Amino acid sequence: EIVLTQSPATLSLSPGERATLSCRASQSVSSYLAWYQHKPGQAPRLLIYGASSRATGIPARFSGSGSGTDFTLTISSLEPEDFAVYYCQLRNKWPLFGQGTRLEIK
Amino acid sequence: QVQLQESGPGLVKPSETLSLTCAVSGYSISSAYYCAWVRQPPGKGLEWLGHIYHSGSTYYNPSLNNRVIISVDTSRNQFSLNLSSVTAADTAVYYCARQAWTEYYFDYWGQGILVTVSS
Fold first, then answer.
1. Inter-chain contact A43–B59, Cβ cutoff 8 Å?
2. pLDDT at A66
3. What order of strands is seen across the sheet that includes strand A62-75?
4. What pLDDT does residue B65 have?
5. Which residues of chain B have a CB within 8 Å of the CB of A36?
């Protein structure tokens, strides 16, 4: 069974800095990898699908990359509204989520 | 615009059945997307529960041990979740979502509904 591991669990950065979030699969997977932003009391928001395609309306500072077992979400310059929990999600036999990375203000 | 809205009881007793409905607007659930349920227990991550296609075909998370049934009502453009034999571990925010046909990502979500299992 595939396991998705996100790292770090918590990332402390300041606005304007670059954020790099990792999602690693326990075995090589397809590029059907998505990233979501989740804020308390809100619905998750799709950011990236297909490992690197930005969803509709997502700012260009969000980018996704990777293949095989290692995937990365990069936020090029953090805005105050970007501090949230981020999840990766894979198409396995069924949709599988990572455990999340909390991006907090330093 | 596409909108999904969950409704149902916020409190369910242990051993009973949790029942939720998702009303969809802005697109037809008879189109080429799955209708899915995802939950988030307090302090934990997201868990996919299952999905249904408008034809009625379903796929459920095996970890739920056959406790899940998802149904669809195309005439009302809505779909439903039934989770039986609930315990406190089923306390969570439940989301309905539109799931892409091939890639299985979720592009539209409801706001979520907190369901607490308690006597």
1. no
2. 96
3. A4-7, A19-29, A62-75
4. 86
5. 46, 106
